[in-house]
């Protein structure tokens, strides 16, 4: 057995754990959906650190559900194949050739990398896409976007069974159509729909910025639905932050207790959010 020495790191850890104790009880049995964006993934060390957070959550009785993105990884593969993407409102215009690549990258390489990282840290993770057990049935979002889907039915059955067996689901944002089509779903949108179906206690949207930036250029710690709508219409919120904040609003309307948009690249981002008084990021909550 490894011997623990009373070094400063150990003391810092003990202090942190002591501070975290009241929060451990608060979240016992809670369902926390974590959206892990492609830009938040980083290198193998960052991936291992994320995986450790998820495994620790599971150990203290939280039901973590991971929904991932992988936009930059799709871009890399499309570039290799000489295919260019167009974006409308933070969503990739997806034709037949593109959807094949999107499914291969997300449900294949990216999904398995996360599953493997969690399992390597001592967790038990299972990789799924929205096609598995009809988890996420979609309809086309807009004819202009091609095979981009909006989730219309999320069946949490398989997720509930996995939670009972303390297994961590890792979900690629691929949806299935009523006629068996494959849909590309924005990762934030998928995470929001899944969080709403589970009536999750928390939805954490991990990205590569500290949260939502306000009109004055400062990061906003808490936002109301009204503020978000105003910031989208006056252009303060743009690009990929649009689907993120829209997801936050629909998740709250769908019964999720709180949504936090935060920087997934910081060490222990998820744990800091759940187990400290003032977590990092921008909080949007019910009421
Ligand atoms: N008001 C804003 N606050 C923060 N980020 C914003 C804002 N408006 C636009 N953005 C952009 O949104 C990006 C986050 O979205 P995106 O790149 O799609 O993230 P991810 O890949 O993690 O899902 C930020 O990097 C930033 O460039
Ligand atoms: C419709 C749509 O835009 N889908 C995204 C799915 C991946 C994703 O959302 O990845 P990030 O979270 O890393 O951005 C895409 O094709 O890039």
Automatic annotation (TrEMBL):
Q: What class of enzyme is it?
A: transferase
Presence of the UniProt keyword Cell membrane in the record:
no
Please give the pathway this protein is involved in: Amino-acid biosynthesis; L-arginine biosynthesis; N(2)-acetyl-L-ornithine from L-glutamate: step 2/4
The GO terms describing molecular function are: acetylglutamate kinase activity
Its catalytic activity? Answer: N-acetyl-L-glutamate + ATP = N-acetyl-L-glutamyl 5-phosphate + ADP
Question: Which residues of this protein are annotated with the site description Transition state stabilizer?
Answer: 35, 244
So which domain of life are we looking at?
Bacteria
Task: Please report which protein family the annotation says this sequence is part of.
Answer: Belongs to the acetylglutamate kinase family. ArgB subfamily.
This one is known as Acetylglutamate kinase
What is the organism of origin for this protein? Answer: Maritimibacter dapengensis
Task: Tell me the gene name.
Answer: argB
């Amino acid at each position: 057995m490894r011997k623990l020495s009373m070094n400063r790191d150990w003391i810092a850890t003990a202090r942190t754990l002591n501070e975290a104790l009241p929060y451990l009880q608060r979240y016992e049995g809670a369902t926390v959906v974590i959206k892990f964006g492609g830009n938040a993934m980083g290198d193998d060390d960052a991936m291992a650190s994320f995986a450790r957070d998820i495994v620790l959550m599971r150990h203290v009785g939280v039901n973590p559900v991971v929904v991932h993105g992988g936009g930059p990884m799709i871009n890399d593969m499309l570039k290799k194949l000489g295919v260019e993407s167009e974006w409308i409102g933070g969503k990739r215009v997806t034709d037949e050739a593109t959807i094949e690549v999107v499914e291969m990258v997300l449900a294949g390489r990216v999904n398995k990398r996360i599953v493997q990282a969690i399992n390597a840290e001592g967790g038990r993770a299972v990789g799924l896409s929205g096609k598995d057990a009809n988890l996420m049935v979609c309809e086309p979002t807009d004819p202009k976007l091609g095979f981009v889907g909006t989730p219309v039915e999320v069946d949490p059955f398989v997720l509930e069974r996995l939670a009972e067996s303390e297994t961590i689901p890792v979900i690629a944002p691929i949806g299935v159509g009523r006629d068996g089509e494959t849909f590309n779903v924005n990762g934030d949108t998928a995470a929001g729909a899944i969080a709403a179906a589970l009536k999750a206690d928390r939805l954490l949207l991990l990205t590569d910025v500290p949260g939502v930036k306000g009109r004055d250029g400062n990061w906003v710690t808490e936002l109301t639905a009204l503020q978000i709508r105003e910031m989208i219409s006056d252009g303060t919120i743009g690009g990929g932050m649009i689907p993120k904040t829209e997801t936050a609003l629909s998740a709250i309307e769908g019964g999720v207790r709180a949504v936090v948009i935060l920087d997934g690249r910081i060490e222990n981002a998820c744990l800091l959010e759940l187990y400290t008084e003032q977590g990092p990021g921008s909080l949007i909550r019910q009421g």
